[in-house]
Amino acid sequence: MHTRISRRRGFTLLELMVVITIIGLLSAVVVVSTKGLPGTARKAAATRDLRNILTVAEAAFTQTGRWPESIEEMAKNPELSIRLETIPIDPWQNSYVYDLSSGTPAVTCLGADKQPGGVGEAVDTTIPKPEGGE
After folding, report:
1. Integer Cα distance of 10 and 19 in angstroms
2. Angstrom distances, CA of residue 121 to CA of 43, 46, 55, 112
3. pLDDT tens-place string over residues 74-118
4. E strands along 10-131, which residues?
5. How far apart are CA 47 and CA 109, in angstroms?
6. CATH (domain of 57)
7. pLDDT above 90 for 63
8. Where does residue 122 fall: left (phi above 0), alpha (psi -120 to 50 degrees), or beta otherwise?
9. Number of domains into which the chain is organized
10. What is the mean pLDDT of residues 47-52?
11. Which position among 5, 35, 49, 94 has the lowest Cβ density within 10 Å, counted as fewest Cβ atoms?
């Protein structure tokens, strides 16, 4: 009777080190490439809200012949056939700025710093864009 001793084949230390190194490199690439996405997503959400507010203001103007005085009016006025479901808050938990001083509405998100101006996530976004502005 011959009994065979089976030899299990496993991974060598070198193979494991190569695989771990590759996984580390791929992880580093993913982290670097997704670093700015949260800020980009917040900016996109704010722009979507600004467009929505302006669309509701235009619908209210079409229906009533006058621009709404505030975002609150666009949400709470039962006479409007198209209203905001709630009073929107920007992604940094601030109120949007609704301005009628030019005769037509402009809606602004002040960004992360909650103040006019700024750079990066703190930059303001206004719709429609001011004359001569970005």
Report:
1. 14
2. 7, 11, 24, 6
3. 999 888 888 999 999 999 999 999 999 999 999 999 988 888 888
4. 97-99, 106-109, 125-127
5. 8
6. 3.30.700.10
7. yes
8. alpha
9. 1
10. 94
11. 5
